[in-house]
Amino acid sequence: MSQPRLMAIHAHPDDESSKGAATMAYYATLGRVRVVTCTGGERGSILNPRLAGRTDIEENMHEVRKVEMAKAAEALGIEHHWLGFIDSGLPEGDPLPPLPDGCFSVVPLEEPVGKLVAQIREFKPQVVTTYNELGGYPHPDHIRVHEVSMAAVKAAADPEQFPGAGEPWEVSKVYYDVSFSPERILAIHEEMEKAGLESPFLDWLNNRGRSPKRVATTRIDAHEFFPQRDQALLAHATQIDPDGFFMAVPRDIEARVWPWEEFELAYSTVGESDEIETDLFARIED
């Protein structure tokens, strides 16, 4: 196969670092990886208690998160592109309030699809990763990323759609990220308890029945790139607490118990495997 090219489509800056980041760092050593971030994360809150109350950050969240994203991309060795839409925010309340005018989740679908088609045709990825139909979790921007991604992959191959967006390109495979599988969480949780450590996953396990199980078709052994993943996570300083959930698992335990990042094959022009895949580019030829 010619140079592998992987495109990962995400909703907000920091999503790329918590979902398949080690896999991206690995493939960046073999070819090219481009992350497309659909929004600027403008409506995100400061989630790191060390930065709580920083009005200079709150008043310039978009610019701060642009700098964080650049640092994360450097840590992973990847390319990055902003699709250019406005964060929809996470609505709260009962009933839920309407989403803000002009945000990513309410603009006409053809607008982000057209922009993403142009990216696909320019970059020519053989493999795309994105979110499942539930968004991974029910954030409106994550669900919209699924809709936009699947529509753009189909449209990018059709010369009659978006003719001004470049020459048609057919993506060979699309995967959904399966970062937080129950099997992974339980395995790490049990190992931490066995070692006499406090597990950060207890509440998650108590509520796991709320999350539909996904079937992982593909496991990438990316434990050698966990340090790059962690560096990328910490680059998003407004979103990641160094003493919080994402950093609470000892890395030697994680690498021993669950060295993989998992994906679910959602679309393929090159068939499927009866066994667990160990390569996102399996069966793809020139």
General shape: globular
Low-pLDDT windows of residues? none
The mean pLDDT is 94
Share of helix among residues? 25-40%
Q: Could you explain how this protein is built, in words?
A:
The mean pLDDT is 94. Helix 6 (140-156) links the parallel strand 4 and strand 5. This protein has 286 residues and is an alpha/beta fold. The protein has helices at residues 15-18, 21-28, 55-58, 61-76, 110-123, 140-156, 182-194, 202-206, 226-235, 251-257; strands at 5-10, 32-39, 79-85, 127-130, 173-177, 218-221, 260-268. The protein has a single domain (5-180, 215-268), classed as Rossmann fold (3-Layer(aba) Sandwich), CATH 3.40.50. It contains 10 helices and 7 strands. The protein is globular, with a radius of gyration of 19 Å.
Summed up, what is this model?
This protein has 286 residues and is α/β, with parallel strands linked by helices. The chain has 10 helices and 7 strands. A 7-stranded mixed β-sheet has the order 3-2-1-4-5-7-6, sandwiched between helices.
Descriptive keywords:
7-stranded mixed β-sheet; globular
List the helices and strands and how they pair.
Elements: E1 5-10, H1 15-18, H2 21-28, E2 32-39, H3 55-58, H4 61-76, E3 79-85, H5 110-123, E4 127-130, H6 140-156, E5 173-177, H7 182-194, H8 202-206, E6 218-221, H9 226-235, H10 251-257, E7 260-268
Parallel strand pairs: 1-2, 1-4, 2-3, 4-5
Antiparallel strand pairs: 5-7, 6-7
